[in-house]
């Protein structure tokens, strides 16, 4: 199963085909091939940044608190213990000033980062392109990942891809799409 928020091969709780999770920020879906159910949750964390270390640390702490609130809510509503796919913009990355507390909070809550998949595609580029006409590989060899797909109750990911076009004069978003190929238990 490839999870994209606009996954066409899923059905909602009411049995109707779903093309978009929409404004609910979460939805119980069913894989048509296997009949297995799972939850999909969308997040977009606070986007403030600061070059002042103390201020940035407060923003990072806020984003980590937002993750803890979301994961606690998911745990509360997930009474059937369905697998969870949480995707979105953390507005933090692995080399951010003040660390990456939102990612750490996801890991502590039992979520797996699908970028650790067996097959990784375009992970040398950041997932944020800023509408730049041309994007370059990260000098460190691993691009900043503001956009994540994390899972809970699944056995990892087969493939993770940062879907990007290196040169694009008319980008649809300031972020690249990220895709993970997952297998339901």
TrEMBL record:
Transmembrane segments: none annotated. SUPFAM superfamilies: DNase I-like. This is Endonuclease/exonuclease/phosphatase domain-containing protein. Residues 45-175 form the Endonuclease/exonuclease/phosphatase domain. Pfam families: Exo_endo_phos.
């Amino acid at each position: 199963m490839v999870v994209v928020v606009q996954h066409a091969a899923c059905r909602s709780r009411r049995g109707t085909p779903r093309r978009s999770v929409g404004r609910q920020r979460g939805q119980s879906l069913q894989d048509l091939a296997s009949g297995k159910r799972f939850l999909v949750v969308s997040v977009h964390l606070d986007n403030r940044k600061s070059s002042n270390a103390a201020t940035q640390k407060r923003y990072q702490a806020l984003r980590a608190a937002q993750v803890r609130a979301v994961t606690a809510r998911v745990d509360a509503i997930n009474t059937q213990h369905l697998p969870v796919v949480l995707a979105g913009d953390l507005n933090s990355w692995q080399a951010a000033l003040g660390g990456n507390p939102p990612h750490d909070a996801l890991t502590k809550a039992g979520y797996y980062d699908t970028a650790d998949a067996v097959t990784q595609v375009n992970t040398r580029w950041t997932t944020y392109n800023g509408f730049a006409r041309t994007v370059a590989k990260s000098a460190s060899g691993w691009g900043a990942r503001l956009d994540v797909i994390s899972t809970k109750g699944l056995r990892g990911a087969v493939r993770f891809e940062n879907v990007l076009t290196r040169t694009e004069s008319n980008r649809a978003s300031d972020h690249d799409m990220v895709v993970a190929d997952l297998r339901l238990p």
